[in-house]
Write a structure and sequence with these properties.
Shape of chain B: globular
Largest interface: A-B, 29 and 25 residues
CATH topology of the largest domain in chain A: Chloramphenicol Acetyltransferase
Distance between the termini of chain A: 45 Å
Structural class of chain B: mainly alpha
Low-confidence stretches of chain B: none
Radius of gyration of chain A: 22 Å
Order of helices and strands of chain A: EEEEEEEEHHHEHHEEEEEEHEHEEEH
Helix content of chain B: 55-70%
Oligomer: heterodimer
Strand content of chain B: under 5%
Helix content of chain A: 25-40%
Mean pLDDT of chain B: 92
CATH superfamily of the largest domain in chain A: Chloramphenicol acetyltransferase-like domain
Largest sheet of chain A: 6 strands, mixed
Mean pLDDT of chain A: 83
Distance between the termini of chain B: 7 Å
Number of strands of chain B: 0
Number of domains of chain B: 1
Number of helices of chain A: 8
CATH architecture of chain B: Orthogonal Bundle
Strand order of the largest sheet of chain A: 9-19-18-17-12-15
Low-confidence stretches of chain A: 82-110, 153-160
Structural class of chain A: alpha+beta
CATH topology of chain B: Non-ribosomal Peptide Synthetase Peptidyl Carrier Protein, Chain A
CATH class of the largest domain in chain A: Alpha Beta
CATH class of chain B: Mainly Alpha
Radius of gyration of chain B: 11 Å
Shape of chain A: globular
């Protein structure tokens, strides 16, 4: 028999609250199934299982807060040898994963009620049933202010979560800056071919089938990581660098109302652009509803961050330990470029690489960045 | 679709994307991307929703016409005539 345990979803996570079972005793379960929802200070996370078998007894009651590693349920069938959690090919060292997630949302337990994620979360904290609140947002949506008015108080806005998020980020980033000797490289990428291809491709498509430039950059990074494995893996202080077998690209998603999650797109190099776009839409929607899965939270092998849409030209990334590289993309800006002996105006995007000097050198980093650039010159081959 | 219907639909769809915003006080001439903090994925979801609800297929080349609440209302009224 195997025991399904409270997973660790980040270095700072000591305990989680079981809020929902998605499998009842007797139900068959297989690797990858979502079996439970756990509430942490990073939001509600859908927890997957990594063995095949059948759900046995539930050992913890709904609503109970228990420490990481506590058995939550028995699983009939497999033997108890598996790690307590984690699908990552290499388990990141303890205290290593950056807990970037602070979705403002609780899993919407009250279906059919239109409410903002912040309102849902606050209502849950206060124990108020959403259906009893009159919504003043668009279409009668219950917004945060409605909840606070209903509670008869103007409570501080998610103060605790923001404080915890800051602590978590502070710990991981301080560790990164303390332990990882970063080097930084930047390169301007001509985005003319990519944008022209995108424009042409999207012109023939209805909105739900259109692609965003982000899928091109994600795919280019994934393919470059496949060619240069020194940027795709984990650094372990005891074992040294452990390249990852798969390419799971962590992609930063901003959460409305504050917070940031960086869930992984699994096997990013294997997906075609349409699949990648579906993944991106799905991840962004679930991140914003607070419905991410445990594996997505813990097993990114490299990270991509884009701040271009907020007008940033150059992003100087800080590596998320135990990863060894982060690629940043800035705004696409029309700039004059000398081509031959003529000056042309080209849409340029600055790509940056922050990489771990214990694992790679600037020369290899430059080739990695160049590979990303080269891939983006032939978007039809991505 | 008249102006009121178009505005109601647009506000509803934007509300699905940015539910915390106050649409009573939203400047109808403000850039929605800045005013509502919406990114390109949000905007694509907005255009997708308009397509599903009204059948109006907004090409990318027209996105700039929908960057304000007023602009989007005028566009939708015009295209549903």
């Amino acid at each position: 028999m195997y025991r399904f345990r409270m997973p660790s979803l980040g270095a700072d996570m000591e305990a989680g609250t079981l809020v929902e079972w998605l499998k009842k005793p007797g139900d068959p379960v297989k690797r990858g199934d979502i079996v439970a929802v756990v509430e942490t200070d990073k939001g509600a996370i859908e927890v997957e299982i990594f063995v095949d078998g059948a759900m046995g007894r539930h050992l913890v009651a709904l609503g109970a807060t228990v420490p990481v590693g506590t058995p939550l349920a028995e699983i009939e069938g497999p033997v108890e040898e598996e790690p307590a959690f984690g699908a990552a090919p290499i388990s990141p060292p303890k205290g290593a994963v950056l807990p970037l997630a602070v979705p403002a949302a609780k899993r919407p337990v009250e279906e059919g009620i239109r409410a903002s994620p912040a309102a849902r979360k606050r209502a849950a904290e206060l124990g108020i049933v959403l259906a009893t609140i009159k919504g003043t947002g668009p279409g009668g949506t219950v917004v945060l202010n409605d909840v606070e008015l209903a509670a008869g108080e103007k409570a501080p806005r998610r103060g605790l979560d923001i404080a915890k998020m800051r602590q978590a980020i502070a710990a991981a980033m301080a560790r990164s800056k303390r332990e990882i000797p970063h080097y930084y490289l930047a390169s301007d990428i001509n985005m003319s071919p990519a944008l022209a291809w995108l424009e042409q491709t999207n012109a023939e498509r209805v909105p739900e089938k259109r692609l965003l430039a982000a899928v091109l950059t994600l795919k280019a990074v994934a393919l470059a990581a496949r060619r240069f494995p020194a940027f795709n893996g984990f650094f372990d202080s005891a074992k040294g660098y452990l390249p990852a077998k798969s390419i799971h690209v962590g992609t930063a998603v901003a959460i409305r109302g504050g917070g940031l999650v960086s869930p992984a797109i699994h096997d990013c190099d294997q997906l075609n652009l349409d699949q990648l776009m579906d993944k991106l839409r799905d991840l962004a929607a679930r991140a914003r509803e607070g419905r991410l899965r445990s594996s997505e939270m813990s097993d990114a092998t490299i990270t991509v961050s884009s701040l271009g849409e907020r007008g940033v030209q150059t992003l100087y990334g800080i590596i998320y330990p135990p990863q060894v590289a982060i690629v940043g993309f800035g705004n696409v800006i029309a700039r004059p470029v000398a081509i031959g002996d003529k000056v042309e105006v080209c849409p340029l995007m600055t790509a940056t690489l922050a990489a771990d000097h214990r694992v790679s050198d600037g020369h290899l980093g430059a080739r990695f960045l160049r590979e990303i650039e080269t891939r983006l010159q032939e978007p039809d081959k991505l | 679709m008249n102006t009121q219907e178009a505005r109601a639909l647009i506000v509803m769809e934007l509300g699905n994307i940015a539910p915390e915003a106050d649409y009573e006080t939203l400047d109808p001439k403000a850039d929605l991307r800045e005013a509502l903090d919406i990114d390109s994925l949000d905007f694509l979801n907005f255009v997708t929703a308009l397509h599903k609800k009204t059948g109006v297929n907004v090409p990318e080349s027209d996105y700039r016409k929908l960057l304000t609440l007023d602009g989007a209302v005028i566009y939708l009224v015009e295209k549903t005539k």
